[in-house]
Amino acid sequence: MKRIILCFSAILVLCAAAHAQEVPRVEVAGSFSFLDANLRGPGQSLHLSGGGGSVAENLNSWFGGRMEIHAFGGTVSGTSVTAQTYTYGPVFSYRKFERFTPFADLQLGAIHASTGYLGISTSAVRFAMAAGGGTDINLNRRAAIRLQADYLMTRFLDLRQDNLQVSTGLVIRFGRR
């Protein structure tokens, strides 16, 4: 946890020093996503794929808020399983480069999982926390390709799961700050 706080503090300082650029007011993204849900360590993973979307409002050149929703599905031992995440939190962007915009985020929310997900016997909703980052590769001032990876912490069966969520997709930008 100390490392996460230090990383976000460093990003915050770097972002505050960034030169002013054209900043979109709102960013809407759609993505293909992959979830590596891990209950008991390597070899016990559940691999699901799906899609997601996000909406972010930039309050200034380096700080904003982002809502993300992802839905995943797959088959485990012949049983169809699904999971959906709903998270919201701050996003810190470094808008100094013309070609790409790196960012970091920390989001809190929930995960809904179906019967069979990591061995649960009935569908359930649990707390979820996502921390990570990525980069937007700018195509022009209105569109970008997003590459993102997040650590996703969940708790099912009274155990903590350390999951990896990876996404790639298209970002469309609206307005200016």
In terms of per-residue confidence, which ranges show pLDDT below 50 for 5 or more consecutive residues?
Answer: 12-20
Q: Number of helical segments?
A: 1
Which second-level CATH architecture applies? Beta Barrel
Structural class, by secondary structure, is: mainly beta
Q: What is the CATH topology assignment?
A: Porin
What is the CATH top level name? Mainly Beta
Helix and strand sequence: HEEEEEEEE
In total, the number of domains comes to: 1
Assembly level: single chain
Strand order of the largest sheet: 1-2-3-4-5-6-7-8
The count of DSSP E runs of length 2 or more, i.e. the number of strands, is 8
Note the overall shape. Answer: elongated
Considering DSSP H and I runs of 4 or more, what fraction of the residues is helical? under 10%
The biggest beta sheet is recorded as: 8 strands, antiparallel, barrel
Write up what this structure looks like.
There is one protein chain. The protein has a single domain (2-174), classed as Porin, CATH 2.40.160. Mean pLDDT is 88; it is low at 12-20. Helices cover 8% and strands 65% of the residues. The chain is elongated, with a radius of gyration of 17 Å. The protein is mostly beta strands. It contains one helix and eight strands.
